[in-house]
């Protein structure tokens, strides 16, 4: 009995310490979101956001960042808004692969832990709240894993601009896709991804912010392989979101059919590719673009 009491006591102390530390890192995380309200345009998304030159300004993005993580970051950004916020436009990167079965499996929380889980959830766990344990728009296994990864004890911070890459893929570059992505209409099964994206669009709308969705250039080999019906459904879905928001734009550069010197792989950009995105986005949002 004494051993049981001692064990419960040790566990209680450990949980209390963990809670205190998580509260500390959450407050540290919120600092980055508060500071970003001094910008006129704020950038969210996955690694494609890192391919958009964004000098001197924060971006809330990360490699292979899923749509729920982006939504959660945007929710936190909204929660830190006050009367002094200068934000007018939210820029979000999007592309068809955010809705493929791999993304859906990751957000189901049933995919076995891998390097992505530790990276993505560790990056987002800093802003997790108690309310997130009970939300219904994301499956409970994902929520449970997110709670577990708060033990990484690190803040959710804003990325800053990094140097672009000059070296491109070869002229004869190609990259394959799995059979599901190639031969089935996977978009119809992307229930979690589509819900997260719709919630994101609606949240921006409620805040009265302009929304700019950016689809970066993608190597032509991608569209040669990906299921045409799924792509058509993706385009219809994005257009419906644009129409529902009322003050949104889809900067769709994925089909630009640029040459190989634009790409470092099938969906990331060289300095040349980044310059193209910057030019098109800057012409769209004008003075709101970071200087």
* Helix percentage: 40-55%
* Global morphology: globular
Tally of separate helices: 10
CATH architecture classification name: 3-Layer(aba) Sandwich
Provide the domain count: 1
Q: Which topology does CATH recognise?
A: Rossmann fold
Main β-sheet: number of strands, strand sense, barrel status? 5 strands, parallel
Average residue-wise pLDDT: 90
Helical/strand content category: alpha/beta
Q: What Rg is obtained from the alpha carbons, in whole angstroms?
A: 20 Å
What is the strand content?
5-15%
Number of strands: 5
| Fourth CATH level, the homologous superfamily | SGNH hydrolase
Could you give the order of the helices and strands?
A: HEEHEHHHHHEHHEH
CATH class: Alpha Beta
Distance between the termini: 66 Å
Low confidence ranges: none
* Strands in their spatial order, largest beta sheet: 2-1-3-4-5
Explained architecture:
- The protein has 291 residues and is of the alpha/beta class.
- It has one domain (2-288): Rossmann fold.
- Helices cover 47% and strands 8% of the residues.
- It is built from ten helices and five strands.
- It has helices at 2-36, 67-79, 101-108, 115-124, 140-148, 179-183, 191-207, 220-225, 228-245, 271-285; strands at residues 41-45, 59-61, 89-93, 210-215, 248-252.
- A five-stranded parallel sheet has the order 2-1-3-4-5, with helices on both faces.
- Helix 2 (67-79) runs parallel beside helix 7 (191-207) and helix 7 (191-207) packs parallel to helix 9 (228-245).
- It is globular, with a radius of gyration of 20 Å.
- The relative contact order is 0.16.
């Amino acid at each position: 009995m004494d051993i049981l009491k001692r064990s419960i006591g040790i566990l209680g102390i450990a949980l209390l310490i963990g809670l205190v530390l998580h509260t500390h890192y959450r407050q540290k995380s919120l600092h980055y979101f508060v500071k970003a309200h001094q910008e006129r345009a704020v950038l969210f998304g996955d690694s494609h956001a890192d391919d958009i030159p964004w000098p001197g300004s924060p971006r809330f993005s990360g490699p292979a960042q899923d749509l729920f993580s982006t939504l959660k970051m945007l929710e936190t950004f909204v929660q830190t808004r006050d009367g002094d916020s200068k934000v007018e436009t939210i820029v979000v990167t999007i592309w068809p692969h955010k809705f493929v079965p791999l993304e859906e499996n990751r957000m189901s929380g049933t995919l076995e832990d891998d390097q992505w889980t530790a990276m993505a959830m560790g990056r987002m766990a800093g802003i997790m709240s108690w309310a997130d344990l009970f939300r219904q728009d994301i499956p409970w296994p994902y929520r449970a894993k997110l709670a577990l990864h708060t033990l990484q004890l690190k803040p959710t911070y804003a990325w800053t601009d990094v140097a672009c890459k000059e070296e491109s893929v070869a002229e004869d570059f190609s990259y394959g896709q799995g059979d599901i992505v190639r031969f089935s209409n996977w978009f119809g099964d992307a229930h979690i991804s589509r819900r997260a994206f719709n919630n994101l669009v609606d949240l921006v709308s409620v805040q009265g912010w302009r929304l700019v969705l950016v689809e970066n250039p993608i190597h032509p080999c991608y569209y040669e392989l990906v299921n045409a019906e799924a792509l058509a459904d993706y385009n219809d879905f994005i257009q419906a979101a644009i129409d529902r928001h009322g003050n949104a734009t889809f900067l769709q550069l994925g089909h630009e059919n640029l040459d190989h010197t634009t790409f470092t792989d099938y969906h990331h950009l060289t300095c040349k590719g980044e310059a193209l995105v910057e030019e098109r986005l800057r012409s769209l949002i004008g003075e709101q673009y970071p200087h």
